[in-house]
Specification:
The structure is a single chain. This protein has 259 residues and is an alpha+beta fold. It has two domains: 65 residues, no CATH class; 165 residues, Sulfite Oxidase, Chain A, domain 2 (Alpha-Beta Complex), CATH 3.90.420. 25% of the residues lie in helices and 20% in strands. It is built from seven helices and nine strands. A hairpin with a 4-residue loop joins strand 4 and strand 5.
């Protein structure tokens, strides 16, 4: 699975695809992913369940996934920082990852772009890229950690997200910040993570304007979460108290997904 919806399959999943009926494939893969995250307590909960009873097993797996989210959220701290690295440690080239090939990268017209704001935000004025580039910027060299197990170190620059939320009058007592993207991806994060000092509305990679392959016009860089929680090609964001899930989370991946 590539970040943001990649559909690369392991050999084991390819075999399952060959054996399973078409309508069962997504459910099997989701259940396999959730099972990998079960603790011993979760495995004990499965004891006595008929593993051929999809509804019963899925109910237990979803319960454990929500339990994992609560535990990770309880351990999260805004004072605990992800490691930062020297320029010499940057991975070259930084890998492209998406649910489509690099020849299908979404192209956004930067001159016409306006970031749409909605929800629990006082000032919903759309933001142009020129407006965003004019804001105070910060830079970080942090590790991107993929749920597949690989990682890479990159340099990102942009607007500290908590500063941007303050500037637009976002209700920081709300639970979630959600994102909609030009490549039809969508995601959401908890407000505490949104206010973490390293969460960045990234506008540049290295010394260059963010290239399309890395998410132009902007991506959310969240070094305290797994890669699929870092949406690219962001076109709209909103603040809400209603759980909105995400592209992969709605298919069974842990929502909190701290790295």
């Amino acid at each position: 699975m590539n970040e943001q919806g990649g559909r690369t399959r392991t050999r084991g999943l390819v075999k399952l695809r060959d054996l399973a009926a078409p309508g069962q494939i997504e459910r099997i893969e989701r259940r396999l992913f959730l099972k990998r995250g079960l603790t011993l307590g979760g495995l004990a909960m499965l004891t006595g369940c008929d593993v051929t009873d999809n509804a019963a097993v899925d109910k237990v797996l979803w319960a454990m996934s929500r339990w994992n989210d609560r535990v990770q959220a309880g351990l999260f701290s805004q004072t605990r920082l992800a490691p930062e690295y020297p320029e010499s440690a940057i991975t070259k080239p930084f890998p492209f990852n998406a649910y489509y090939g690099i020849d299908e990268v979404r192209m956004v017209d930067g001159d016409a772009f306006k970031l749409e704001l909605s929800g629990l935000i006082r000032d919903k004025k759309p933001w142009t890229l020129r407006d965003l580039y004019a804001l105070p910027q910060a830079s970080q060299i942090t590790r991107h950690i993929c749920v597949e197990g690989w990682s890479a170190i990159g340099q990102w620059s942009g607007v500290p997200f908590r500063d941007f939320l303050a500037r637009i009058g976002a209700d920081t007592t709300a639970k979630y910040v959600g994102f909609r993207c030009a490549d039809d991806y969508y995601s959401s994060i908890d407000m505490e993570t949104a206010l973490h000092p390293q969460t960045l509305l990234a506008l540049r990679y290295g010394n260059d304007i963010l290239p399309p392959k890395y998410g132009f016009p902007m991506k959310l860089r969240v070094p305290t979460k797994l890669g699929f929680k870092n949406p690219k090609h962001i076109m709209a964001m909103f603040v809400t108290n209603a759980y909105v899930g995400g592209y992969w989370e709605d298919q069974g991946y842990n929502w909190f997904s701290g790295s």
